[in-house]
Amino acid sequence: GNSVTQMEGPVTLSEEAFLTINCTYTATGYPSLFWYVQYPGEGLQLLLKATKADDKGSNKGFEATYRKETTSFHLEKGSVQVSDSAVYFCALRDVTSGTYKYIFGTGTRLKVLA
Amino acid sequence: DTEVTQTPKHLVMGMTNKKSLKCEQHMGHRAMYWYKQKAKKPPELMFVYSYEKLSINESVPSRFSPECPNSSLLNLHLHALQPEDSALYLCASSPTLITDTQYFGPGTRLTVL
Predict the structure, then answer these.
(1) Is A90 buried (19+), middle (13-18) or exposed (0-12) by CB count in 10 A?
(2) Are B98 and A100 a contacting pair at CB < 8 A?
C-alpha cells in the first residue's frame, strides 16, 4: 500500500539556519507529492507540490524535488525565519491506483528561534 | 474568492446535543471533503462529495452525517457524539475529484463534554 514517512520532530533552528525535513514514500502507482504547512490554530495550506519524477516544487523560499530513484521528497529552505514556525506535512496522492485519498505523513513541527 | 470558510470556529457540545458544522467555497469546485484531525496527528479523511453526491465514506460512525445541499456548501451534522470525537474538523475542496490540489478551510475546533 501507499505510505509516507517523515522525520520525527520537533526540529528547532535558529533564524537564518538551513532547513531540511526528510520525507520518503512508498507508492504502487505514479503519485503526486505535496508539502502542506499548518500554522498554529489554522488549517492546512499547500506549500508546494510536484507531479512527476524530477519535478521541483518551490514556494516562499522552500523547495522540494521529486526523486523517484530514492522515493524521496525532502523539504529544504536556505534561511528560515521565525514566521516559518509551524507543522509541515508531506503527502502523496495516487489517483492512478484508484484512490483519491491523500496519504499524509505524521507531520514535523518546526520551531525557529530569533 | 479563493478560500474555504468554515463556521463556527469553535464549538462545545454535550453528548446529547445535535449540532452542525458548515463549510462554504465559491471557487466553483465540485469536490468537497471532511477531515478529522486529532492533536499532533495528520488529518484523517472522513467523507468525500463529488458533484453533490457522496463518493467516499471512510467507515465513519453514523453519529456523523454529511450533507451537500449545493455545489458551494457542505455540512456535517453531529448527534450523540462521544468525548473522543473532540478534534479539529477540516473541510477542503478541489476542482474535481481527480484534481491533485485540495484547498483547506481553517477548521472547526470541536469539544464534546
Answers:
(1) buried
(2) yes
Q: Smallest Cβ distance to A49: which of B55, B98, B101?
A: B101
Inter-chain residue contact B90 with A44, CB threshold 8 Å: yes
- pLDDT tens digits for A1-18? 889 999 888 999 999 999
- Per-residue model confidence (pLDDT) at position A97: 65
The residue ranges of DSSP E strands in chain A, in sequence order, are 3-6, 11-14, 19-21, 23-26, 32-38, 44-50, 56-59, 62-65, 75-77, 86-93, 102-104, 108-113
Q: Inter-chain contact B42–A89, Cβ cutoff 8 Å? A: yes
Closest Cβ–Cβ partner in A42, A91, A106 for B106: A42
A95 Cβ under 8 Å from any chain B Cβ: yes
| pLDDT (average), residues A82-109 | 88
Residue appearing with cell numbers 479523511 = B45
Best CA proximity match to A23, nearest among A100, A104, A97: A104
